[in-house]
Structure formats: structure tokens, C-alpha cells
Design goal:
By secondary structure, this protein is an alpha+beta fold. Helices cover 34% and strands 24% of the residues.
């Protein structure tokens, strides 16, 4: 993540609990520390990790309990946040609001959070950030690898920055600050959009079926209205299309080439959580069509997928000989380019020395007996195996 703000030597607040009893209290699946008789005082930041920013959140015991009790609800609490990056000589403090986050990840012990900054004092230009524990990723490298492939494939990808998180001076582990997909995401990239939809809850179908409610499968993020007509037109066109007329029917309303690249990319990085969830559709005013925007690839390379994505739209592509060939050639293009195992393994090995100390001291990783060095080698093996299998399958299917 690029930083353009000047050095700011603002010192954080910390809890001074000398002589007071520290008690571990468990609310359902989340353990929190509660202090009695604590006072607020100036203090030095929590220990920094080399090459890594430290994020320090301070909440009163009352705010922390509210956050914990409402783990399944979007209830905001006030917090003090200090971002400290000694290697870049950057230190800033904000008064923020935060809440629990994630559709399915709230059941995990290590929680995700949604951070909201004041409009007049943004986090390096950003009003909202996700603080992600990546709870399903035992390597803490899958999002980095997945987004690297997607960016090289031509997609906009969110900025993500690893940080060492402290909550009330207790080390919580290695987290990622991740830029959300919203209207400002596209504004920062100079992409004019007039509509933005979000797939949700594994219900984002690519066709109309009996009983399907489009508003249960998609959120309208921008503008803030109930007009789903453009998305409804797309799904209706897909439902009525045939393999032979698919490309012509979709051309005025949907970027089919982008979709083919998206599905090929998700198969190449073996990200199963992308067919009916974790993507956005945006109306690109430059082309006048809806386009795909990827999101949340923390399952990259953690399963074994077939070469064809299981969606109705992809079935139509596969049944069209010319479109099927384009898809398979795109798979091979990605395997030879951004998803080449040698390049991805080099990326992984360059990041492990930076992240390993924070990862290995993460209490959740320690409890599982993991080290980043061991987990990264497993990921490298998964990348190699997936590449070899998909390459052989694509070459076989391209044979006359």
C-alpha cells in the first residue's frame, strides 16, 4: 500500500493497569481481556515487527464487551487506532468506529473487523477498510497469490497490507488491511461506474430459476436505490440464450471476454468460493456494459477444481466450440504467465521472511502448531500440482 502522508508523531493512548487484576473472559467463541480499575495514559507502541506495520486498537472494557456480545450483528463501537510503520517512518493515530465483519467468518475464533474512519481524517485517503484475519487460510499467503494472478490477468484488485494487530496491548496475530469494493474503489482508479452490485451469501445465481429472488442473491451498493433492472436484464438474457447466440445476445449488456478471463483465473487459482459469492458486477460507463470485479480470494489453491466452472453461463460457453476454445487457451495463457508456479513460488519466498515472525507468534497459529515456513511449502506444492493437472487437461481438451 502506498503512503503519501508525512511523518506524524502522535502518541497513542494505552491502558495502565499496573497493580490491577487482568481477567480472561470468554463470550461464546471469543476470548477477551477485561481490566478492572484501568486508567488511560500515554504509552509507547506495542513492539513492532521488522518490515511490517503494527496496528494497535484500544477499546474500553465496555466497548470491547459490546463488540464481543454483538459478534453476529453490525454494531459499531468507538476505538482508538494507531498505525505504526517504523521502516517507513510513519506513525498516525485515529479515533474510529469498528464492528465485526464477514458473512461466514464470524463463527471463527479469530475475528474480522470493519473499520470506519472520520470523513475529514481518512486512512491514507480511504474512508473504510476491512481488517481481515483470513481465518480459513492457514498460510496467510493465498490472498496475496490470488490477487497477484488476477491483477496480471487485467482485473482491478484491492490493496492489501499485512499488519501485526494488537488489541488493548494483547497481540492478536497477523492480519490484513484490505480495501473494500465500493464506488470510491473505482473512483481511485479512474473508472467511471454508474451501478455496482455485490454477490452475497452463496445465492448469486447466473440465471433465473423458479423462486429466485435477485435481491437475496445480490446487494445494490451504488447508487443507493432499489433499481435492479440492469442486472435483471442480464440474468434474463442468459436464461434465454443458446450456446450459438450467447455472444451476440450478451454483447450490448455484458463483457463476456472479461467473464471468460474471470472464470479461467478462478479455476487456475483453484478458488471455489467465486461462482455464486465473492464477486461484484459494475456498469463501466466507458463500455456501457456490466463487468466482473473479483473479491476475497483467501481460498486460492486450497482445493481441487475441475477445469470448467460450475455455472449456467459457463455451461453455455463450454457448449459453444469457439468460446470453449477461447476459454481453454486463456487457462493455458494464465498458466504460462501470471500463474506460472516458478513466479508464484518466488513471490511466496520473498514474503515469508517479512511475515514469518508475526505469523509464528500469532497465538492461533501457535495453538495449531503451524509455522509460516512449513505452511508456505505446502502452498507451493499445491500450486505446482494444480498447474500440472490443469495444463494436461487443457491440452487434452484442445485436441481435435
Amino acid at each position: 500500500m502506498k503512503h503519501f502522508l508525512k511523518q506524524d508523531r502522535l502518541f497513542p493512548w494505552s491502558f495502565n493497569c499496573a497493580g490491577n487484576m487482568k481477567q480472561l473472559v470468554v463470550f461464546s467463541s471469543l476470548a477477551v481481556l477485561v481490566w478492572s480499575g484501568c486508567s488511560l495514559s500515554d504509552g509507547d507502541p506495542a513492539p513492532a515487527f521488522r518490515g511490517l506495520a503494527t496496528l494497535r486498537l484500544t477499546l474500553t472494557p465496555e466497548e470491547l464487551q459490546t463488540l464481543t456480545v454483538n459478534r453476529n450483528l453490525n454494531v459499531f463501537v468507538a476505538a482508538d487506532l494507531v498505525y505504526d510503520y517504523p521502516d517507513r517512518d510513519v506513525r498516525r493515530r485515529w479515533a474510529i468506529e469498528m464492528r465485526n465483519a464477514g458473512q461466514f467468518s464470524r463463527r471463527f475464533f479469530k475475528k474480522n473487523f470493519h473499520l470506519q474512519f472520520p470523513p475529514e481524517d481518512r486512512f491514507f485517503g480511504k474512508r473504510i477498510l476491512n481488517l481481515s484475519a483470513q481465518p480459513t487460510d492457514d498460510t496467510k499467503l493465498r490472498s496475496l497469490v490470488g490477487y497477484t494472478v488476477l491483477q496480471s490477468a487485467g482485473f482491478h484488485v484491492p490493496e492489501l497490507e499485512p499488519v501485526a494487530l494488537y488489541l488493548n496491548d494483547e497481540y492478536q496475530g497477523l492480519y490484513y488491511l484490505i480495501e473494500p469494493i465500493d464506488k470510491e474503489f473505482f473512483d481511485r482508479r479512474g473508472v467511471p461506474v454508474s451501478a455496482l452490485f455485490e454477490a452475497k451469501l452463496l445465492e448469486a445465481q447466473w440465471e433465473y430459476t423458479e423462486g429466485f429472488n435477485i435481491r437475496l442473491g445480490y446487494n445494490k451498493l451504488y447508487p443507493d436505490d432499489d433499481n435492479f433492472s440492469e442486472l435483471e436484464r442480464l440474468l434474463r438474457t442468459i436464461t434465454e440464450a443458446t450456446p450459438a447466440n450467447l455472444e451476440v445476445q450478451l454483447a450490448p449488456i455484458f463483457d463476456l471476454s472479461s467473464y471468460i478471463t474471470y472464470q479461467a483465473s478462478m479455476v487456475v487459482i483453484q478458488n471455489f468460493d467465486s461462482w455464486t459469492n465473492n464477486f461484484h458486477l459494475y456498469h463501466d460507463d466507458r463500455t456501457g456494459t456490466l463487468r466482473l470485479q473479483p473479491w476475497d480470494v483467501d481460498h486460492a489453491y486450497d482445493t481441487e477444481l475441475d477445469i470448467y466452472a460450475p455455472t449456467v453461463l459457463n455451461d453455455l460457453i463450454v457448449e459453444n466450440p469457439l468460446l470453449r476454445r477461447r476459454y481453454l487457451l486463456k487457462v493455458l495463457e494464465l498458466l504460462d504467465g501470471p500463474a506460472d508456479p516458478a513466479g508464484l513460488q518466488s513471490l511466496i519466498r520473498s514474503r515469508v521472511p517479512v511475515l514469518a515472525e508475526a505469523y509464528n507468534r500469532d497465538p492461533y497459529h501457535q495453538a495449531a502448531g503451524w509455522t509460516m515456513e512449513d505452511r508456505s511449502r505446502i502452498l507451493e506444492g499445491q500450486i505446482t500440482a494444480a498447474s500440472q493437472r490443469l495444463r494436461a487437461e487443457a491440452v487434452r481438451l484442445l485436441q481435435p
